[in-house]
Every structure is written in structure tokens, then in C-alpha cells.
Design brief:
With 369 residues, the chain is an alpha/beta fold. It folds into two domains: 220 residues, Rossmann fold, CATH 3.40.50.720; 112 residues, no CATH class. Strand 1, helix 1 and strand 2 form a beta-alpha-beta unit. Helix 4 packs parallel to helix 5, helix 6 crosses helix 11 and helix 8 runs parallel beside helix 11. The radius of gyration is 21 Å and the shape is globular.
Length: 369
């Protein structure tokens, strides 16, 4: 059985992937940057505990190493790297900056481009010829593309063709992988993730990204201004492409078990969710009246509506998207359709997430008393 190496291993998707790998007795190497007050092992153990609701995880096949993404050899001793890469490996590059604004541009490109280059360098130096390199990209590397975003490489473009610098950096990163495939023979593959949400079967949701970040802001607003009517700049008929974390973990497991894997796969949902359903779900779960408005100028907003708008500096870029993705390559490996985040499942995820926020708020209020 091959060894699986994962950097950025304490992230949401990576840690769920690791849970599934350990349950199937794979040997896993987790590369995690140590925190100021806790070790890389502690960070990994903490996130595994959180993702699994405190349930026991057999981690006997898990080894955690502290690493530095931008340092030569990850600042890991050479002998240790030789041990880490001994035998056939599948290497997954999850590490990324999720920032998106212009003020963070340098950090975004340093992490997402230079970090990837260094990761490929380490892999190329120590992995054998049967090993594979997987770069975890985003389906939103499509930027403002119109039409069906196929599972192929696209040219680098200026920032005006993207919603933010995160999207642009991921497009550039994909072409770094292409360069190493074409010039250096890298056995490289790209996995593009759409917006990853909670567990489709249980509703358990441990991410605060995308629609959940929006729900968090509305939860705070509803507690401060209950039963308030608030207009939000959202196109109710536009959609969000939401893929459940259990589907992503299943797809990743099928990927490592496949002998031949396409160079690029779009890990996306076949059916998107309309914004109006997400808005209606939040309205049912919180004491607030959200009113989606396609066109809402700042000068037309009241104070509270401006607060909401300011908090949507990232999610606001996706309020009018109806993105289309090709899946011919994905379908070659994933022979059956994965679990879809339908309307009922999304409601269940939002209910779990909002309930968790309410419990945390209640605990804070008790401590303050």
C-alpha cells in the first residue's frame, strides 16, 4: 500500500481526507507548520478531534512533521526526507493562502506560487518515478470565464479577468504545474475544488467558508437587531456550486486507488443551489428578515445594510454566479455521481452551523456573567 504525504494537513479538506485514509489503514505523513503556542503534532491532533466531534481516531499510521513551506527542503533534515519519501507515494499539496484582497497580494503569491514551486522541488528531489504529485486548486481559477470551464489548462490572465487575487494565483499555480509536467516530466495532477461544505449525510459542518461565513455574519446581526428587515445585495436566482466534504473525501480516496488519473479533474457539484434557497434557509433559522436585492447601491443602504455589505467583501464577489464546469475527466475516475448538496442537505448544514454558533455565544455570555 502506497504512502500518502499531505502538506497543509491541518486544513478542513485535508484533515477530513486524513480521517478517511486512517480509517482504511493507509500510512499518512502530515506536514504541518507549528503554531506559536502548540506543536505541529498538537495542531494536527486538535483539528482531527474537532472534525470528528471528539470521537476516537486511530492515528497509529499517522506521522506529523513540522515544516516550513518556503524554506529549502521544508527545513526538514535530508535523512528525514529520504525516510518520508521512501517507497511509492502520492503527494498532495493543500497548503495555500486563502486571502484575496490587494493588500495581501504579495503574501498570496508568495505562498501560492513560491510555496508550490518549493513543494515540487522537494517532491522531484526525493520521490521515486512511480510517485504522483497532486496540486489542490480551485474551480474558481475559472475567474470570470463565460461558458463551460473544461478540465484543461488555461492561459494566465490579468487581474481584471478574476474576482480576486486568490483566483488569479491559483490559475498561475496551475500553469506552474503544467510547466514542470512539460519540461521536467513531473507526474503531476490538478484537482479543482468548488465550494466545499459540510457532510451531506449528517449535516455536520466544520467550515466557515463561503455561505457559512455569510451565515455567521447574519447570525451576529440577528442577535444584535432581532426581527430587523435587512436588504442584502444578492441575486436570488444566481447559484452556488457546493460540494459536500464527504463527497470530496470519497473522490480523493478513489483518486489514490486509481491506476490512471487525468491531469486535471473538476471536483464540483453537478447541481448548484440557488441563492434564494440559502437566503430562505437562513430566514427560517434566525429571527431576521433578509431581502435579496439584485441591485443595491451603497448610498441606498441604511447603517445596518452597510455593515452587512462591508462584511461581504469576499462573498459579495459570488452573489451573481452561475458557473458551469466540465466533468468528462472526473467521470472517468468517479464512475458514479457523488452525494449532492441538495436543498434539504444545505438546510441541515446551515442548521448545524448556526446551532454551533448559538452555543458558543451562549457559553461566552455565561462566562461574562
Amino acid at each position: 500500500m502506497k504512502k500518502i504525504i499531505i502538506n497543509g494537513a491541518n486544513g478542513f479538506v485535508a484533515s477530513n481526507f486524513i480521517t478517511e485514509l486512517l480509517s482504511q489503514n493507509y500510512k499518512v505523513i502530515a506536514l504541518v507548520r507549528a503554531g506559536k503556542n502548540n506543536s505541529s503534532s498538537q495542531r494536527m491532533n486538535d483539528v482531527l478531534s474537532e472534525m470528528n466531534e471528539g470521537n476516537y481516531i486511530n492515528s497509529s499510521n499517522l506521522k506529523v512533521y513540522n515544516y516550513s513551506l518556503l524554506e529549502e527542503n521544508f527545513n526538514i533534515p535530508e535523512k528525514q526526507l529520504e525516510t518520508i519519501f521512501s517507497c511509492d507515494v502520492d503527494y498532495f499539496h493543500f497548503a495555500a493562502s486563502l486571502k484575496y484582497d490587494i493588500n495581501s497580494k504579495d503574501k498570496i503569491f508568495e505562498t501560492n506560487l513560491e510555496g508550490l514551486e518549493n513543494s515540487i522541488s522537494v517532491f522531484s528531489r526525493y520521490a521515486n518515478s512511480n510517485s504522483r504529485f497532486f496540486f489542490i486548486s480551485t474551480a474558481y481559477s475559472c475567474g470570470k470565464f463565460e461558458g463551460i470551464f473544461q478540465e484543461k489548462f488555461y492561459e494566465n490572465e490579468e487581474i481584471s479577468r478574476f474576482r480576486n487575487y486568490y483566483e488569479q494565483s491559483k490559475r498561475y499555480a496551475e500553469n506552474i504545474v503544467k510547466k514542470h509536467i512539460d519540461i521536467n516530466g513531473l507526474n503531476g495532477h490538478i484537482i479543482r475544488l468548488s465550494q466545499v461544505v459540510g457532510n451531506c449525510k449528517t449535516g455536520v459542518t466544520k467550515t466557515d467558508y463561503g455561505i457559512f461565513d455569510f451565515a455567521k455574519r447574519i447570525h451576529s446581526l440577528a442577535n444584535r437587531y432581532p426581527y430587523k428587515s435587512v436588504r442584502v445585495h444578492v441575486d436570488p436566482e444566481s447559484t452556488q456550486n457546493l460540494i459536500p466534504i464527504d463527497t470530496v473525501a470519497d473522490y480523493l480516496m478513489r483518486t489514490i486507488n486509481a491506476e490512471r488519473v487525468p491531469v486535471i479533474m473538476n471536483f464540483i457539484a453537478k447541481n448548484s443551489i440557488r441563492n434564494i434557497y440559502i437566503i430562505n434557509s437562513i430566514r427560517k433559522l434566525l429571527p431576521i428578515q433578509l431581502i435579496p436585492v439584485r441591485t443595491l447601491k451603497r448610498e441606498e443602504m441604511d447603517t445596518i445594510e452597510r455593515m452587512v455589505s462591508a462584511g461581504m467583501s469576499f462573498t459579495g464577489s459570488y452573489i451573481n454566479t452561475n458557473l458551469l464546469f466540465g466533468t468528462e475527466e472526473l467521470d472517468k475516475v468517479m464512475l458514479s455521481v457523488g452525494n449532492e448538496a441538495n436543498e434539504q442537505a444545505v438546510f441541515q448544514m446551515l442548521a448545524y452551523y448556526i446551532d454551533t454558533l448559538s452555543k458558543k455565544r451562549s457559553n461566552v455570555l455565561k462566562e461574562e456573567k
